[in-house]
Write a structure and sequence with these properties.
The chain is of the alpha/beta class. The protein has 2 domains: 196 residues, Periplasmic binding protein-like II (D-Maltodextrin-Binding Protein, domain 2), CATH 3.40.190.10; 91 residues, D-Maltodextrin-Binding Protein, domain 2. Helix content is 46%, strand content 18%. It has a 6-stranded mixed beta sheet, with helices on both faces. A 5-stranded mixed beta sheet has the order 7-6-8-5-9. Strand 1, helix 2 and strand 2 form a beta-alpha-beta unit. Helix 9 packs across helix 10. The termini are far apart.
């Protein structure tokens, strides 16, 4: 037997086999932050409805960290507000909105000292907010309704995780935040002074996917949508179990979590179609109105004169999954 020749043939066959074996598919790295509207994603993965072999959920502590990770390419998709979507578009990241997670109707809030009974009481007070476009936007809308300007308050930009301790030390008079932090501040004596139910339709959370990933791996996005719809259906059939599971992951009692969720409207299949499909999808108008507000308040100075929502919205995955 010619051993060297046999070894050569085996080596060549191995090379051919390696060349024919396709590389493993990458997972869709979807970044999130602690927020009740994101919890069905984790619930769906726990139940096996959102496949872990295709979707990798990555949780960040703050919106600032989350958006930085997307801009730097550490993740392929992100749970973002419309303000953040327009910021990514302005910076040239070519974001594609493929689904709507929820709309906030009270779950974004301003928590204040018990003696502060009106928005005008914010004048001259120390107000904390996280370093995010959403925080700045929420504060701007609150001050607008109070008839105040930014220079009329003492703004403290700090991390979400530091607000409760700073509050307990008496260093803050009000905090711009969202659930579950509203609940945490309420537990140490803060009262709700303002929430997103006063600005309906303005705080909307969507899933944004990088254009190149969406074009290369559309089936991953389809799997995410199918899993989301299946999870919402399971949640409707098993409400108590769902609340218990989602509350536990956020470290809340089920009743507290249910109170937090009362200010969040999750978007099912029918709502997705109303928002993303048709000749005049509802989200297009919302995005364009948001662009006008951001320009008016100079929160995104470089934003073009008109928001091209058609460049951002991508309904193809939804239409594949739910024609």
């Amino acid at each position: 037997m010619n051993v060297p020749r046999l070894q050569s043939w085996l080596f060549a066959a191995l090379l051919l086999l390696c060349a024919c074996t396709p590389p493993p598919e990458p997972r869709l790295r979807l970044g999130t932050t602690p927020w009740p509207g994101n919890e069905p994603l984790f619930l769906g993965q726990e139940l096996g409805l959102i496949p872990a072999q295709r979707i990798h959920l990555v949780e960040y502590v703050s919106s600032a960290q989350l958006m930085r990770a997307f801009r730097n390419g550490a993740i392929d998709a992100v749970s973002a507000t419309l303000e953040e979507v327009l910021s990514l578009e302005q910076l040239g990241h070519d974001p594609k909105v493929v689904m709507v997670l929820d709309a906030s109707h009270g779950a974004d809030c301003v928590m204040a000292r018990p003696d502060m009974e009106s928005l005008s009481a914010l004048e001259g007070r120390r107000i904390a907010s996280e370093e995010s476009l959403l925080g700045v936007y929420m504060l701007t809308r609150v001050l607008e309704q109070a008839g105040l300007k930014r220079e009329d308050v003492r703004l403290d930009i700090s991390s979400l995780g530091s607000h409760v301790a700073a509050w307990q030390r008496g260093e803050l008079d009000a905090v711009v935040t969202f659930e579950p932090y509203c609940q945490q501040l309420a537990s140490v004596g803060a009262r709700k002074l303002f929430d997103s139910s006063h600005i309906p339709g303005e705080i909307v959370d969507v899933v944004v996917v990088r254009k190149e990933f969406l074009e290369a791996w559309p089936r991953h996005v389809d799997a995410l949508l199918r899993g989301w719809f299946a999870t919402l259906a399971w949640k409707q059939q098993h409400p108590q179990d769902a609340m218990k599971r989602m509350a536990g992951r956020l470290g809340l009692e089920p009743q507290r979590f249910q109170e937090a969720m009362s200010g969040v409207r999750l978007m099912d299949e029918r709502a997705q179609h109303a928002l993303l499909t048709g000749a005049q999808p509802a989200l297009r108008e919302t995005l364009e109105r948001m662009g006008e507000l951001l320009r008016h308040h100079q929160l995104l100075p470089g934003l073009p004169g008109r928001t091209e929502s058609s460049r951002v919205l991508e309904a193809a995955p939804l239409l594949r999954v739910s024609p």
